[in-house]
Amino acid sequence: MKVMVGGTFDPLHIGHQLLLTRAFMTAGAGGHVVIGLSSDSFASRKLHPVRSYDVRFAELTKWIESKHFEATYEIEILFDQFGSALTHDFDALVVSQETFPVGNLINEKRKEMGKNMVDLYQIQCVMAKDGKVVSSTRIYRGEINRYGEPVSEDQFAGAGSCKKE
Asked: Which residues pair with 50 in a beta bridge?
């Protein structure tokens, strides 16, 4: 099965890891996962700082390789919310609650273009230990770490290496 998933993945946190794991598990042995990774220009729309594409690509690749998933993968650069999801043939799109509307929009546009619609697999948000959603914004604010655990401002070192473009 060919599966697509996308995001900025900065920092790569437990919610992202769940999303990516679901994509690889959906693709299965012999399947293929296309991961759209936001370009620096597209990522600049975020409210928090974002590390460079190269840094995010390296972190993403390192994490995927450490998991030894059975499906193959490729990472493509995203300049918008659609990437190649409108033009390429694939079977499923894995989305979060936040990106589910984009998945529906992709299917609407595919239908208008005479392409097959794809299955949408939605994961639930991962909750931090404080009962709130794990998010990159909360991590960059220093409220939690990438595992959803609370951190104090003096423990948080990630924001210093990032810049808002």
From this structure: 163
* Dihedral over Cα of 7, 35, 60, 150: its sign: positive
Nearest to 161, CA basis, from 144, 139, 130, 143: 139
4 vs 22: CA distance, rounded Å: 11
Distances from the Cα of 43 to the Cα of 27, 59, 91, angstroms: 26, 16, 26
Name the token pair of 115. 């392409």
Q: Which of 42, 30, 38 is nearest to 2 (CA)?
A: 30
Give the residue from 103, 100, 61 showing the smallest Cα distance to 83: 103
What whole-number distance in Å separates Cα of residue 112 and Cα of residue 119?
16
- d(CA 35, CA 110) in angstroms, rounded, equals 19
Residue whose token pair is 């690749």? 61
**Angle at alpha carbon of residue 104, lines to 1 and 64, rounded to 5°:** 45
pLDDT tens digits, one per residue of 107-162: 999 999 999 999 999 999 999 999 999 999 999 999 999 999 998 655 544 444 33
For residues 61 and 163, give the distance between their C-alpha atoms in angstroms, rounded to a whole number. 21
